[in-house]
TrEMBL record:
<comment type="pathway">
    <text>Cofactor biosynthesis; adenosylcobalamin biosynthesis.</text>
</comment>
<dbReference type="GO" id="GO:0016994">
    <property type="term" value="F:precorrin-6A reductase activity"/>
</dbReference>
<keyword id="KW-0560">Oxidoreductase</keyword>
<protein>
    <submittedName>
        <fullName>Precorrin-6A/cobalt-precorrin-6A reductase</fullName>
        <ecNumber>1.3.1.106</ecNumber>
        <ecNumber>1.3.1.54</ecNumber>
    </submittedName>
</protein>
<dbReference type="GO" id="GO:0009236">
    <property type="term" value="P:cobalamin biosynthetic process"/>
</dbReference>
<keyword id="KW-0169">Cobalamin biosynthesis</keyword>
<dbReference type="InterPro" id="IPR003723">
    <property type="entry name" value="Precorrin-6x_reduct"/>
</dbReference>
<dbReference type="Pfam" id="PF02571">
    <property type="entry name" value="CbiJ"/>
</dbReference>
Amino acid sequence: MILVLAGTKDSREVIAKLKQNGSSIIASVTTEYGANLLSDLDIIVKQEKLDDAKMKQLLRDYEVDTIIDVTHPFAVTISKTALEVSAKSNIKYIRFERGSIESREHELLIKVNSYQEAARKAKEFEKILLTIGSKNLDYFTAEIEDWQQRLLARVLPNWKFIKRVQELGFSPQNLIAMQGPFSKQLNQVLLEDYEIDLLVTKASGKTGGVDTKLEAALELDIPVLLITRPELDYNNLVKNYQELLQEVKRGEH
């Protein structure tokens, strides 16, 4: 049995590939939104936050022999737990993460290590598009004066996320509720139509849409503020589906 720690758009495709390969799968998600994304795949889906004890119990209950980590690059807590538990339990761990261009260098690409630093840098610009989700927008509203006129946030069109940003004070005029993936062309339309001076994003990999954001903004000579991901040593990283299936097959012997 394979446990897929889901949390990105790649999770569906990973599960589909594994099913085609004949693997038995259980998926773990932390939100109802994540569970709904997998509801039609005819697999067992567990919705709860897994700490050390809960993950060990799940591995025992379903006789898991392989963990495939497809969580968000910023979800370091669950990845650390999976790495530690798999090592102690002698269970194979595989991290799946498609390659991205976010490591490139460019004069308009500004890299920072935290949301606090990003907010301090962002206030130097006039019109700012935030594509960082809904959880950390408060760093920017606290740091930037007259932010209601300067900040534009793009979030998922889910009522929980909309409620969160509304409670911060975001109104329809500085809110874009859209479901990705977004093409370079669509990103450019938004950047131009809203007359954006700075794009803020997280280093969330290709699955998080970073590549098309960077391409869109830099092609228009719009600076990008990139919040880098936490450092984590994934001991078994694969970057495409072929490598993943080969690694799973190796674990069967």
